[in-house]
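Data availability (excerpt). The following record was deposited with the supplementary files.
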Amino acid sequence: MNRSLYLLCAGAFLLYSSDASATQWTVGPGQTYTAPSQVAALVGDGDTVNIQAGTYPSDVTNWTANDLLLRGTGGHAQLASNGTAWGGKGIWVIQGDRTRVEWIEFGECSVPDHNGAGIRMEGKNLTVRHCVFRDNENGILAGTPASVPSNITIEHCEFDHNGYGDGFSHNLYINYTDTLFFRYNYSHHAHVGQELKSRAHVNFIEYNRLSNEATGDASREIDLPDGGQAYLIGNFIQQGPMGQNSNLVGFGAESLSNPGPHAIYAINNTMVNEKNVGSFFSMPATVSFKGYANIMAGGGTIMATGFPNATDTAGNLRAPDIADLNFQSAGTYDYRLFAPSRRRTSVFPQATPQAVIRWFPWKNMCIRRTARAVASKPPWMRAPISFAPPRWRSARPLRRSHSGRTPAGRLCISLGPMDLAWSFWTLWAGQQEGSGRQV
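Predicted structure:
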């Protein structure tokens, strides 16, 4: 007992000593250092660089220390590179490990090989939050063979009009890395390239908005060219009429070179194709596809070349006519369903963590969310939409194969202190409801 207490106290002391030895740097007008590049060679492992809100034109640099926190204070610190780059690579070239970047705006980076990035990651384990990447040749270009094993987390960021226009540069391009966590982001109007391209072995793509909108000429909204494992949960994915590619999500389009098993899980996504042709998914027949509770509206087919051999789907809704789904404002890309919409009886609610809850419109199970309520919720309930499901206690997913009927299911949920239980028989797969079809 005494020995355990001693070790605990010693560990706490070492942690405190490490934190206490880290330096806080302040950069901005009127400070000793007026630009981030002036402190880049001075910082040590574990330091924090606070960059005051404002514009820092043509200021580019690299960061080599480990465990850095680089953040804007009082708003976004805007790094307008004006076509310059450090080392011919990017505005910030991050070569240290475990770097965190917050509240920075990266813009206007270009280089002779047309690959200039807002952030070029060459270290390991990068976290980026609350940042903006606009008008660069690449928003983020991450990963080298030396950076594996490594994870990348990107949350609450906007990627806008990045890409040179050659199809090889993108809003963001994740290369060599183990796992990508891409959550709560808005990626739109990539120039000819992809809204998100990732070669990570495992991809968690959750609660994002990825869209071309009316004027965007991006290629795919999500491109995972080397397979692996992918989890697409609770996203709004839209392809506009000027998109360069015919499908919204590509998986294994170039190879299946990532470690297997190769599987893609698409759950509770709202996908809208404003073209008359194309497909919502494209993947080889040899991968595993699990699709639950997705809304697929607009032209084209579900799969580009037929479903993979290992396919399992349930509770999806396919609607060729976007207007039939009664979105709140499809013209402004608000794809939330009106509460009284009968389509809500056909699919599971967008932003539910598991595809297990059937939506009953005659039960007041939908909770209006406020900013305060969202802040108090766990991460899976912080999606950028207005409705969230009730708390659930236990449930069994409803599944079917393409050759079988949907079995009966039982669901128990908890709504406040009162437990409500429903038993219900699900409808046959492929049942028609208006012009929407369950698949």
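Summary of structural features: The chain has a mean pLDDT of 80.
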